[in-house]
Design brief:
The protein is of the alpha+beta class and about 260 residues long. About 25% of the residues lie in helices and about 30% in strands. It has helices at about 1-5, 30-35, 90-105, 165-170, 175-195, 200-210, and strands at about 20, 45-50, 70-75, 110, 115-120, 120-130, 140-150, 215-220, 225-230, 240, 245-250, 255-260. It has a 7-stranded mixed β-sheet, sandwiched between helices. Strand 6 and strand 7 form a beta hairpin.
Length: about 260
Amino acid sequence: MKEQILSQMTTECPWRDTLYWYDTIDSTNTQAKKLAKEGAPAGTVLIAGNQTGGRGRMGRSFSSPEGMGVYLSAILRPGCKAEELMHLTCAAAVAACKAVENVCGIFPGIKWINDLVCGKEKLGGILTEMSVNADGFVDWAVVGIGINCCQRKADFPKELQNMATSLLLQTNKIYPPDLLAAQLTEALFEINNILFQKQQIMDIYRQHCITLGQNILVVRGEESAYGTALDLDEDGGLLVRFADGTEKVVSSGEVSIRGMYGYV
């Protein structure tokens, strides 16, 4: 499978030289963090045919059946302070959407902060993790992306069938995961090259963020509050006007956002 992925990438992309394929793995993010701690270089990309322990934000699981999707993690070493990298999930979402568009012509919507959606159904998800040293600099960051390619409704766990979708379901055409994996690797390489051009990245993210303008439920631990999503700041923080009229920027590390009338 590695050779199939490489054959669909441009020879100019240097990340092809540090690309690893796993038939089965517990989690590409878990393995990527291990390799990052051992000194793996920036641009190391891990792709799996199947994950037995795929993870999303806040400890949620991510369904990763064999041959049905792209399960990919990339190691970055941006050499910056942690506060300069708060928009990383947004950057990864823009890259993932561009890769999907390159493959099948669909630019997905983005549910703040890390879900790719088509209509009201989830197409994929993003998990970013990083290690910060005592001086506040990022030692490494890992970007994990999972995108559903070939599932029909019956292929999803029963509890996800009403809220999950795939490229096949959206286009009625099978797009092999290796093609999307190649496009995703190149899109991440390109976004990494402009990672600190925040306005350019956030303008694209804002344009496709389906959360903006919606009535939402902001969940923080055991507490929750209703509000309206107004805008995004340059770091990807969500400006919310709460029911009492106050406005506050909330960060992805603090809260989970739920639509009041369903998944989105």
